[in-house]
């Protein structure tokens, strides 16, 4: 009897332990779930601001496109064996033309998914015919498959069992469009990685952001609720863990930067930029905020400065030599950011510390390059 | 004096021997069968015990000189020498006797064993005969699949290790593959037809160094050794593109053998003649396609391929020859133009001649084009039943896909209708 | 190979055409193509053109899917093609044609039988109650 009792106790302890670990697991996953999706469902539509020329230019520059990453070797080509490389003999002019073509291709690869307001439900009744009640217990869905009509303009109607003829809602439209005009890669059923919270969180923990966002782009429309929820959680996860580098040189950096700026939450990105001594991009971010919200102190100054920065080449790595123009521009940037930190920042002390670090590093760099110039006798 | 004493001592030893002789009792009570008396002589010496085993076997197995010239004694019915001693143990014979100290231990446990007769083993002879029969058949040496060459246990395609070290210099990391081993018959004035062996091997370290060698000798093994060591002496260095393939497509020929070699991307493998494959492995080339045209003489193939490899031009050389940038486009990099080589001075569009070959492949192939043969239809594709089959199969063309889809979605070949109508069950389910 | 769904049927400019349902699918699983074909031709023969499809078995969401190439249907109607009643019913339900009278008749009959069934049930219940009492 005693043995039995002790066994029971042991078992109970086990059960208890298991339960305890369960709750732990739950709390772990709860931490992830606790990211509340922030979608574009307010009164203001983000689309006009997002598509405006100024914002687009700023977002593209903030993406910091590195062609080594944009044209990296991709395994998702669906080929069994990689085709043989092609070789060409080119003159200087032809090579430049080819590079220009590649730049255009890069633009296409870096085309940002649109940021738009969430869609309104379609509720249009075309006709009501009570005499048809009892005709059938099932709904009839009619799709116009006329050649050459875009999916969003396709005529799709349904006849309900109560005889009402109405336009279909977005989810049904999407399903039927996918049935008759399948999009390569989109699934009729939602992929498990989006429906199963556990799996989705695992992907985020593994920092597979680009994969998640690419798949979301493929599976959903940009104005869908699910798309905005998924992207919102992903962006916030990136922001919290400061994994901005993962999205650089991808098409998702722009929407991410727009998202965090729109929700006035871009101080993590600002800090990261200052810590990596990308002051010019920090100014661009300030200008972006002023474009969207118009609440930055001396924001117009930042905008003017941004216009000066945009023609300069993209700094993929820290510069090792400085010209006098560079020094002037960077000093202007530093003073602009100082004002931003004082008036708008939520992480004042940290950003100031980072800026101070940059100043010291930059002073050294200035001395070095001036000394070198003197040594070469060019100064 | 000393001599005398010696003689005396010998005598003293000899005396007891005489005594011993006298004491031996010869059998006296032997009964001679005198009633059945035969006058025919018995020969105790005959053919089988007069000659040694070696000569006896030779008389059975060998073929006369005239017979051998006619080609006798080569096929399946050939008698082979059997070792009759095999399977026999000293002390064990027809009569199963126990001989302590010979076929059994003298003391077993605490008991002293005695010489005694054991019950007969009736199967002993059968076992022996079976063993002897098994010796008659010729058995091939079994090789592990890794050691095997191109076909069976024959030498071509097999590895024979690195070349022998020269002084203190060892060929570490090298491996030699046999490409060809054949016997050549040579007529000689005083010896008649003599047999020579010729071997061709390739050796390499898989990192760019490789060489081939030809060896001739009276014995196959000697020919292989000669060839191997000669190959080790004639190493050449080949650069590879990114360590996996050749720099460009090329055409090469030796005699009537023509080879068209194509550069391939990673993961393609070696799709070429087996000799070329072995050479590529010796060099360290992993991806390549080669098409052979004309004669398929192996030695010519090897020589042609090596010549082709040596005549390759690096990208920088090609760019300098053409005085144009050489640009690479890879599908996996979304065809981004990557400049692999630039000349010191680049020509302009005006300086390019009107009828100049600008196509890269055409240029490196020296305007040679690979013959692309039309695919020959499978033997059944032209038959009438194949058309009928295609027509019938048309309606099942997607079944496998749909079954797979249902399995992923519901875990079995069923659909939502099965849940909606549970009474409609298939026989297998019920 | 089976003939393609569209384009290999014989076409005579002046002969009458008909837009009709052509059964595809297999045993116990009907599926229809809405096709235009010569009026005096069998359904098993190649058609002039496919204009849509109709799946009479409700899917998992209890929906029957109909696809209509309205542009081509208009073209063939303009050419004077005859429309068979089942196709006319489908087009009526879709709002492209006026509702076919047969649809109203079917609906009315269905409603009637249902009402009768309900009445029968009520009667049976009453009878049960009376016997029990």
Describe the protein's architecture and organization.
Chain A: Pfam families: MRP-S22. Chain A: This is 28S ribosomal protein S22, mitochondrial. Chain B: Keywords: Mitochondrion, Ribonucleoprotein, Ribosomal protein. Chain B: Pfam families: Ribosomal_S5 (PF00333), Ribosomal_S5_C (PF03719), Ribosomal_uS5m_N (PF21251). The complex is a heterotrimer of chains A (379), B (430) and C (133). Chain A is of the alpha+beta class and 379 residues long. Chain A has helices at 2-33, 47-51, 53-62, 67-70, 92-109, 170-180, 192-195, 197-205, 209-219, 225-241, 244-247, 253-262, 267-275, 279-292, 299-309, 324-343, 348-376; strands at residues 86-90, 125-128, 139-144, 156-159, 164-167. In chain A, helix 3 runs antiparallel to helix 14, helix 14 packs across helix 15 and helix 15 packs antiparallel against helix 16. By secondary structure, chain B is of the alpha+beta class. Among the domains of chain B are: 81-138, no CATH class; 250-364, Ribosomal Protein S5, domain 2, CATH 3.30.230; 378-430, no CATH class. In chain B, the strands form five sheets. Chain B has a four-stranded antiparallel beta sheet. In chain B, strands 9-10-12-11 form a four-stranded mixed beta sheet. A two-stranded antiparallel sheet of chain B has the order 1-4. Chain C has a five-stranded mixed beta sheet with strand order 4-3-2-1-5. In chain C, a hairpin with an 8-residue loop joins strand 3 and strand 4. The A-B interface holds A 67, 71-75, 77, 79, 81-95, 98-99, 101-102, 105, 109, 189 and B 248, 262-268, 319, 322, 324-337, 339-340, 346-349, 352, 358, 360-361, 363, 409.
